[in-house]
Amino acid sequence: MTSPTAIRTGHAVATAHPLATEAALEMLRAGGNAADAAAAAAWTLAVVEPSGSGLGGQATLLVHAPAGTCTVLDGHSHAPRGATRRAIDRAAQRKGFRATTVPSMPATVGALSERFGRLPVARVLEPARRAAREGFAVSPLLRRHVQWCTDALAATGFGARTFLPGGKAPRRGTLLRQAELAATLERLARHGVQDFYTGGLAREIADDMRVHEGLIGLEDLAAAARPAEREPLSMNFRGHEVVTVPPPGGGLQLLLGLRLAEALSLDETAGDEALWYERFALVVDGVFRERARWPLPADRFTGTFLDFMLGAEHAGEIAAETLARMPRPRIAQPEGPGDTTHLCVADSDGMVVSLTQSIQSLFGAKVANEKLGFFYNNYLCTCSRRRGPARLRSGARPQSNAAPTVVFRGPAGTARTPWFTLGAAGSRRITSSLLQVILQATLRGRTIAEAVDAPRVHPTLPGPYMVESRASSPALLDRLARRFRGPLVPRAARSYAMGCVQALVRDEAGAWSGVADPRREGVAHGE
């Protein structure tokens, strides 16, 4: 249960926390399917990873059904109706009750159960309710997150009471109970997820916002009661079909990165590690420079424009510009401190679920609904105060890097079968870490476990570039210093800062393997 890689033949799970993995397995053993298991893991992560996800955040997911179809449940959240630059100053945009978009995580995870699951919602919620009521052992990572955010948590009664016993971060192994959150989960089990949007819980949230001069009201909550069901994006890459989420999720930039890898001939650099990582850094740099100049909110792109964006000609133009070291455009926001969590589940019937959820920064907006026991997100910090598609406004859907993805053996239009599914945490490192795993597997023949573990690089915008120590050769550092204006930020061999991938892989005989990134505390298991 503690191994980062687990291989079995029936079903498999990979999540960022042992209790979430166990919750998924509990559902599968109870006769549930991958949707039930993924929902149980997501609810449980909302309890045991309160710094990275929760009821006050958002979720998006990709489901591959046994019949072969793929569906996206798009839970990317919206700014409330009252969100304007006049109503939200710069400080309030980063933290506090006005920094939050309308929470969508409960609606999205609830819809996963309702649309694809077998078990009652009360059963699926049980592991999360149990973890909140009975408590769980504080992990080293949660302790570290609390230490990083001690001042902000101490400023709120809920944060100090729950996460700072005696005024300090709890020791590793300390039992952490969340009675208010347990009561909220119990109410969801009795009354259904819609209570969060149109019932008693919705009134509690609206009252809390009103008392603290927040902007979310009952109309905002009711409008977010169901996620959009959408068609995924897909692209053929090196004889495989890559299927991922559409904008405002990060799937478009992921696919654009694959096209840039082709345009920059990344496959021809396999024998030169320094050249491989230099070209890869250029791929990521090109992706985010291109995203910074998108003319419209990405969720308004037409099919024709998406085809253009992912075309070989456009990728060639970006590659030429990148190699020529053209000046970077100004970007709306520097790279933020976002944190996230991801999980994957595959069952023996052929269903696969890949799900990403987040509250944006560590502990989100740093304020909580103290009665209901969860932190609000601060996704409005990602919106620009300048004119442009990502500007702060009423109803805005902040740009996201979340990219739950399935890669199939064989291209679209053939009798293809799932090869692997993956997703990641880590703000913009979601894009760079997923690209590195996919490219290591497809271009370099690495196993998925090897690809997840492989050293990573990440250029940030604007400014510095990050390199894990295992990739940090003099030749690479010299190449990157000539390519990028900012300084080097060295990272440890398996650095927390470089993203965290969860993945499942299926061999040609049908056996599933789960891979949890060693950079954090995830666990993979199968049976």
Automatic annotation (TrEMBL):
Top-level taxonomic group: Bacteria
GO molecular function, one term: hydrolase activity
Annotated keywords: Hydrolase, Transferase, Zymogen
Name of one Pfam family that matches: G_glu_transpept
This protein's record includes keyword Iron: no
Family in the record: Belongs to the gamma-glutamyltransferase family.
UniProt cross-references to PANTHER family, sorted A to Z: GLUTATHIONE HYDROLASE, GLUTATHIONE HYDROLASE PROENZYME
Protein name, per record: Gamma-glutamyltransferase
